[in-house]
Design goal:
The structure is a homodimer of 137-residue chains.
Chain A lengths: L16 E2 L5 H11 L3 E5 L5 E6 H9 L10 H4 L6 E3 L4 H11 L3 E6 L2 E7 H17 L2
Parallel strand pairs in A: 1-2, 4-5
Antiparallel strand pairs in A: 2-3, 5-6
Chain lengths: 137, 137
């Protein structure tokens, strides 16, 4: 992984989302099905209006002991989206993740969310680096 | 991060745990308090008898819609512990994490759990690598 490369190179372009009125049960099912730790919340116009992580579910549903059908996703999602421009370097993005203590970040281009980068992507990139190093021997 | 170094160098030695009879509410609170995605479950003899991730809580409590007080942690924890020896290389460990699709792994030495390695540790190591690279310029 080239830490100076733009994050665009390593981000995941396929965004997996739920609707604001979906239940948290549904959001959990989608996370399990796709084996991901976060989801974007997309409204009818196709705009990303929120972000939901496993941590949000633990903090705002499991700990208070709320049922999984109410509140819907929009009540427990994070509305204050953390984004980086697609031109930001991998190093800058890792720095933001670490300082904010978050594991996923949205990538934005021309005012639109175009991808997501998570520390799982970092795992894959590190593995590829290892394979390249071994192949070069 | 030297991918050939033993995982011992990068693992977190401080294990944060709950008891088998603790509630999932309590486990969630500990995860939020320490900002971690997994916990070890430790019995009265001090042995690690299980492992609990945010994903386990989503899958086995939130989706089925169970209350946060029952079942206790022991009913939803993972009992089949995935461990690596402390001498395994970082590269081998990343490979296991990736192939198994997991984000945390326990590190074992002489039959005892001595640490945990998660992809958050990978984030910190990558950041240090960047700082070293910049300092060397």
């Amino acid at each position: 992984m080239d830490l100076r490369a733009p994050i665009r190179v390593y981000m995941t372009k396929k965004l997996i989302g739920v609707r604001p009125d979906d239940t948290v049960k549904r959001a959990g099912e989608v996370m399990v099905e796709f084996d991901i730790g976060s989801l974007v919340v997309v409204n009818d116009e196709g705009n990303v209006v929120g972000f939901l992580t496993k941590g949000d579910i633990i903090k705002r549903l499991v700990i208070p002991g709320l049922p999984n059908t109410t509140p819907p996703v929009k009540e427990i999602m994070t509305k204050d989206l953390v984004t980086v421009p697609s031109t930001a370097s991998v190093g800058e993005v890792l720095d933001i993740l670490s300082k904010k203590g978050i594991k996923h970040i949205l990538v934005e281009e021309d005012g639109k969310i175009v991808g997501i980068f998570s520390i799982s992507d970092l795992l894959e990139a590190s593995r590829r680096r290892l394979e390249t190093a071994i192949a070069a021997e």
